[in-house]
Each structure stands twice: as C-alpha cells, then as structure tokens.
Write a structure and sequence with these properties.
It is built from ten helices and 18 strands. The chain is α+β, with helices and mostly antiparallel strands. The strands form four sheets. Strands 1-2-8-4-5 form a five-stranded antiparallel β-sheet, sandwiched between helices. Strands 10, 11, 13, 14 and 17 form a five-stranded antiparallel β-sheet that branches. Strands 7-6-3-9 form a four-stranded mixed β-sheet. Helix 2 crosses helix 7.
Length: 473
C-alpha cells in the first residue's frame, strides 16, 4: 500500500513538473519571422483586421445611439454625415446609411426591407473576411416592393438554412458577426422626397427568427471582444487576440485558395480556428514591426491610388468571395472598407495635373466640360478628405463634397468648376466650393460614380486638379 501511495505521489510530481515545463516553454516560445513572412502575415490579415475594426466600432456606435448592446439593431441616418464621423475611413456624403450590426450565433435574424422613392438604393453585406455581397439594388430592379431576408451562419444554433414562411431570401453569411446596411440616395435637393426615404429607412429593424414567428427571443450571449483601435494599433498591440477571435467566428472554405493562404500564414503564430484565445499560447513577436509593416502597405496603396494614370484595381474591388485577389483585398481595406463593386459604383481618384500630391498649402480647381462629366446612370460626386486618416475636412459649412445631393451648379455650357480653397474664390457658387484649412496637410479627392455606364467608362478619364497660382505659403 505504501509503495502504491509513493508511486502515485511520484507520478503526480512528474506530471506537475511536466505541465510546468510545458507551460514555461509555451509562454516563452518565440517566432523568428523573416521580413517576407511578416509581409505575408500582415498582407493576408489586413482585410480581417480592417473589417473587425469597422464592424465592432459600428456595434459600439450603435450601442451608444440605442442604449443596447449594439448588436441586432439598425440605426438609420437622418441627415448627411459630417466631419464628426470617425468610425470608417473615406465615408461618403451623398448617400444615407441604414446600418444593421448582426450577431448570428444564437438565432437567425430576419429583416424586412421596404420600397424606396429613390433612384439609387443598395443593400450590402459583409463579415470579418471583408468579402462584399449585394443582395438587393435598384440597378437590379429591387426596392420597388418590400422584401424579407433571413441571415444565418453555419454556426447559428438550431437552424440549417431551411425555408421559412414569408421569407423571400435565406442568406448564409460567412461570419457570426456581420454588417448588413443600406445606402440610400436621399434626394436632398427635394426635401419632401428626402423625408419619405428617411421614414422608409426607419422601418428597417431586425427580428430574431423566434420574434418573427411570434415567440420570445432566445436569451442573448455576451462575447468577449478584443479591443478595437486603428488597424495599425491592432497589428501592434493585440493582433493574435483579434485574429483568433475572427478565426473562431468565420467560415473557411477548404477549397478556397485565399482562405487557406490566411490560415497557413497565421498558423506559425499559433492562431488556428477553434482554439481558445490564450495570449500565452501564441508565439512572441515584435508588434511594432507588424504595425510598421501595415503602415508601409497602407502608404503603398495610397500611392497607387494617387497615380496620375489612376488606380489599376478600381474595377477589382468589393466583390464576393471567389472573385477577389489579395491585392484588391488589401487595397479596399486601406482605401475605405465596405464599398460597392464596379457595377454599382466606381471610385476613381482625382489627382493633380502636375503629378504632385495635393496639399492644403495650395488651392486647386477641378474643371470638367459637359462632355467630360462622369458617365453616371444614377449620379456622381466629388469628395475631399485628409490623406492621413481619410476623414472629412472640418469646416463650419459642413461642405465636404460636390454633387447632386451635396449641391452643385453647372456652368452655362453644362460643365462645372469645383474649387478646393481656404476661402471661396470670387464669383464661384457656394455649391462648388470645398473649404480647406490652410496648412501643411495632405489631401485626397475621390470621385464616386453611381450606376456607372461601364462601357463608356472604358474611354472616360477622371479630371485633374490644377494648382492655382499665388496660393502657396
């Protein structure tokens, strides 16, 4: 008996020692990545980091506006956006958003979309993987009648995609936490029409499947979300934690090359789907190097967008899974997450005639004759941002873009001159002036062409901004 007790004690001591040694080895494990491997990790992860920030910041914003968790609620814009919007880079100021943040873990979510009195409405969906789908659009003949969509994922409890009475479309999402939102041209120049569209937007509210069927909703389940921040802050501070959470709530296709590439890139870090988040179980690495790599990639994409010949990826962005390249994924993550594909809108940059970066120490003018106006079947706009953050330039007039919604005046020949200046030039219509704050601040100008005529786009060229003489300090 004594021998058995001694044997058990010895085994326990050895087991504890082994666990302690493994734990020590695990917590001290380091990863010696080459620069090429770091580039691949950051490049493959950038779309997920960008969308994690966008979706979770959106939920936090919804929470502040609705006094809820921020999930499974929709928040509709009631006015055009201004420079206080900081949740997404390069927003637009010519459509209203109706944003629904979805938590699909416990139940499917059913949303009814109304008819709209607008010539441009698009429903867009995305999850952490940053692929974009367009379930409904006026360009496809939708929004003439109400339509119900049910959203779920392969991990949604107790539901496997079966038809539901009264639901028009059952849509499987690639992630448990997702965004489904409307872009609505409000027709701001027609106040009554704008109010009708806003009223329609306010009717968009999610219901769990139980609620849709007249039953109480299942109790919600809290999630331990890693901290959000700028994309660079995530890469520097809590990158493995964020990616582990993302992996645990994303559907990966074993036959999809892009999916397998990101899984392969993150595996050496110890980040794999289905694994509990444990900072001690991931390889140690220099977060500052990852953050700086992300910054370098962002600068490269901004330089690419500012090329005088235009961005070669402009027609490759914001497509569904299976139609994207990693180059386009990184580009859309940097330029402004959650855009629409080219058949819905294109975003050509406006660069300068002298090839130099645009800066607020100068004033500029953008000229287009009637024949040079963008080939838009719906409408077009020109929007000004700061280059560093992609935010609107603060000004008392809250004027950030020129176009049908924000206001514009064509000249007597049917063309237009758009001025970017610290003070309104004499004789220039208020509608055609984009104010800047004089100082050393890099600027970006993006043109949006909604419902583009893609055939005409092949021969159309975006205008150039001309620096006005005598304005440099």
């Amino acid at each position: 008996m004594k021998n058995n007790v001694a044997l058990v004690a010895l085994v326990l001591i050895m087991t504890v020692s082994l666990i302690s040694a493994c734990s020590s080895q695990k917590s001290s494990r380091t990863a010696d990545f080459t620069p090429e491997e770091i580039d691949n990790i950051v490049r493959r992860s950038y779309p997920y980091v960008a969308m994690y920030n966008v979706i979770n910041k959106g939920a936090l914003q919804n929470a502040g506006l609705t006094n809820t968790s921020g999930w499974n609620v929709c928040v509709a814009d009631t006015e055009l956006k201004d420079h206080n919007l900081k949740t997404i880079a390069r927003p637009n100021n010519d459509t209203l958003y109706d944003v629904c943040m979805l938590d699909l873990r416990r139940e499917p979510i059913v949303i009814e979309y109304p008819a709209f009195d607008s010539k441009y409405v698009v429903l867009e969906t995305s999850a952490y993987d940053h692929y974009c789908d367009i379930p409904l659009a006026t360009t496809k003949g939708d929004f003439k009648e109400p339509r119900r969509i049910l959203y779920y994922t392969e991990r949604t409890e107790g539901y496997s995609g079966e038809a539901v009475e009264g639901v028009d479309t059952v849509m499987e999402m690639s992630g448990d936490f997702a965004i489904a939102f409307l872009r609505v041209m409000p027709h701001a120049a027609e106040p009554q029409r704008m109010q009708r569209n806003i009223a329609a937007m306010k009717t968009v509210q999610p219901r769990t499947l139980s609620q849709y069927q007249g039953k109480p909703a299942m109790p919600s389940e809290a999630a331990d979300f890693p901290a959000v921040g700028s994309d660079f802050e995530v890469f520097e501070n809590n990158f493995p934690e964020v990616m582990q959470f993302v992996f645990n709530h994303t559907t990966f296709d074993p036959q999809d090359a892009m999916d397998q590439a990101v899984l392969s890139a993150l595996e050496p870090l110890g980040v794999v789907p289905g694994k509990p988040s444990d900072p001690e179980s991931v390889a140690k690495f220099d977060g500052k190097v990852f953050g700086e790599t992300a910054r370098r990639m962002a600068r490269q994409q901004m330089d690419l967008m500012s090329r005088s010949e235009g961005n070669p990826l402009v027609y490759d962005l914001f497509k569904p899974k299976g139609q994207m390249t990693i180059d386009a994924m990184v580009a859309q993550s940097v330029i402004g997450p959650i855009g629409v594909p080219a058949h819905q809108a294109v975003y050509p940059p406006v660069t300068t005639s002298d090839g130099m970066p645009m800066n607020a120490i100068n004033d500029y003018v953008i000229r287009m004759s009637q024949d040079e106006l963008p080939p838009a079947r719906a409408f077009w706009s020109v929007t000004l941002y700061d280059s560093e953050n992609g935010f609107f330039i603060p000004n008392e007039r809250k004027k950030y873009s020129v176009g049908e919604n924000a206001g514009m005046k064509l000249n007597r020949n049917g063309g237009i001159e758009i001025y970017i200046a610290a003070e309104k030039p004499k004789g220039v219509p208020e509608e055609n002036w984009l104010p800047i704050n004089r100082g050393d601040e890099a600027l970006d100008v993006i043109m949006r062409i909604y419902g583009p005529d893609l055939e005409k786009m092949k021969s159309w060229t975006a205008p150039k901004a001309e620096k006005l003489a005598g304005k440099e300090n």
